[in-house]
Amino acid sequence: MPATSSCPSSEEACLRVVIADDEPLARERLRSLLAEQPGVEVVAEAENGEQALHACAELQPDLVLLDIAMPGLDGLEAARHLATFEPRPAVVFCTAYDAHALSAFEAAAIDYLMKPVRSERLAAALERARMFLAGRNGQPAAPSQQARTLLCARLRGSLRLIPVEDIHYLQAEEKYVVVHHARGEDLIEESLKSLEEEFASRFVRIHRNCLVARHELVELRRNGAGQVQAVLRHGKAPLEVSRRCVASLKQDLKHL
């Protein structure tokens, strides 16, 4: 949902903002409050988390004002995806409930505003966003204690959301990870190590460059050269297993 606001002239760098809330009146209030702030431009509005991710992939905003309770992809999961974006936008939650505060900061939000949002609190959040942006380069994303249900593949401004339950295996390839899933293949710019840590209960390492969904493992077998390979339920061909992973994989297969 595009926005029509323009950034007023200011010596301060313009802060480009995406508003994400499923309530039109809440978006209108935020838009009005932002219009009173110097050096701010609303570049897009979104009705849910998925729209917010698409807008951020296309427009690369500085700040996302994000509701938590939205249909479909909620604000908390959207924030966990935004923490992997490069450049990473600042995230400020705007919600009617204070019960999500801890989860919000675990999802790397920089501030948490209660509705109805007050002008002075919004101004303070904008200042926090500017401070975050000033030190953003080289700053790692805060760890999240809850695994995502989707992975986000981005290419030239477009975005595809891949349900984690549809992924067969993940394979490192240079600076990317290739996601092999039920509908094909996509590249994501995340490390295999971070994915292994986030999804430890779902994926198992079979090689230094490959994680396999536990439910995809059928058996281990040796080829003619004596190399151990993993046979996958939906794999086109067996995958190489490193020697150091064989013993743990055999244990995993006993419990599947």
Structure description:
A five-stranded parallel beta sheet has the order 2-1-3-4-5, sandwiched between helices. Strand 6 and strand 7 (158-163) form a beta hairpin. It is α/β, with parallel strands linked by helices and 256 residues long. It is 28% helix and 31% strand. The longest helix has 16 residues, at 119-134. It is elongated. The chain has helices at residues 24-35, 49-59, 75-82, 101-106, 119-134, 192-198, 243-254; strands spanning 15-20, 40-46, 63-66, 90-95, 111-114, 150-155, 158-163, 167-173, 176-181, 184-188, 203-207, 210-213, 217-222, 228-232, 239-240. The protein is built from seven helices and 15 strands. The mean pLDDT is 88.
Distance N to C terminus: 45 Å
Radius of gyration: 21 Å
Q: What is the beta-strand fraction? A: 25-35%
- Any idea what the shape is? elongated
Chain-averaged pLDDT: 88
The biggest beta sheet reads:
5 strands, parallel
Number of helices: 7
Give the spatial strand order of the biggest sheet. 2-1-3-4-5
